[in-house]
Amino acid sequence: MSNAIFPELAGIRPDRPRAPRFKTQVLEAASGREFRASRMANPIYRFSLGFEFLRESNGRAELRTLEGFYLARRGSFDSWLYRCAHDRAAADQLFGYGDGARTQFQLARSYGEFMEPVQNVEQIQGMRRGELLLPASAYTISPTGVVLFAQPPANGVPLRWTGTFFFRCRFESDDVSFDRIARNLYKAPRIEFRGSLGVKL
């Protein structure tokens, strides 16, 4: 499991919107009644990006950077971290309530009415216990986004965080194409990968 970050290069364009996917088992009785079992509490997201140009001259090494990143991951074998342009930050996000005893809480973020754990934290910019902004010495963050408070938050006190996070991703395929469009100029029509706010990939 790599902590390498997908390179941010010029010429990038989203090929299609991010697509969440769940897994549900549906059994239908002879009467027509359905019995459903959800196999995933949190979705796997599918991403598709394209690069309209990748330069390989005049000090630019965009093709080498992107292809080298893919080669280092050995295609779909290794996972890596991705900054999603429109979903990478939490602002004063509620993630739990104190009970006077617990000291560990999983970071989370809401997207509309859906709440999802955040395990790939990039940066914590603020941590609040009620109205109190905590110093960094009052808590620690585990590699999987679990906050450990030095003192248990009081009963009923809301816990909020502000910061940024990654999606943990892997490439969908073991092969990728880079098309030459001019001398020292290439493009990548489509690079597809899947990701999660968790560490299950």
Describe this structure in words.
The chain is mostly beta strands and 201 residues long. The chain has 2 domains: 12-83 and 167-196, no CATH class; 89-165, no CATH class. 5% of the residues lie in helices and 51% in strands. Strands 1, 4, 5, 15, 16 and 17 form a 6-stranded antiparallel beta sheet that branches. β12 (139-141) and β13 (146-149) form a beta hairpin. The longest helix has 11 residues, at 62-72. It is flat. It starts with 11 loop residues before the first strand and ends in a 5-residue tail after the last strand. The mean pLDDT is 94.
Brief digest:
With 201 residues, this protein is mainly beta. Helix content is 5%, strand content 51%.
Topology:
Layout: E1 12-21, E2 24-28, E3 34-38, E4 44-55, H1 62-72, E5 80-82, E6 89-97, E7 104-106, E8 108-111, E9 114-117, E10 121-129, E11 132-133, E12 139-141, E13 146-149, E14 158-165, E15 167-171, E16 179-182, E17 185-196
Antiparallel strand pairs: 1-4, 2-3, 4-17, 5-15, 6-14, 7-13, 8-9, 10-11, 10-14, 12-13, 15-17, 16-17
Task: Give, in order, the helices and strands.
Answer: EEEEHEEEEEEEEEEEEE
Q: What structural category characterises the helix and strand content?
A: mainly beta
Uncertain spans: none
Name the helicity range: under 10%
The main sheet comes to: 6 strands, antiparallel
Binned strand content:
over 45%
Cα-based radius of gyration, to the nearest Å? 21 Å
C-alpha geometry: flat
- The count of strands amounts to 17
* Tally of DSSP helical segments: 1
Q: Number of domains in the coordinates?
A: 2
| CA distance, first residue to last residue | 8 Å
* Mean pLDDT, all residues: 94
Domain DUF2460: 17-193
Organism: Cupriavidus malaysiensis
InterPro entries: DUF2460 (IPR011740)
Pfam family, one: DUF2460
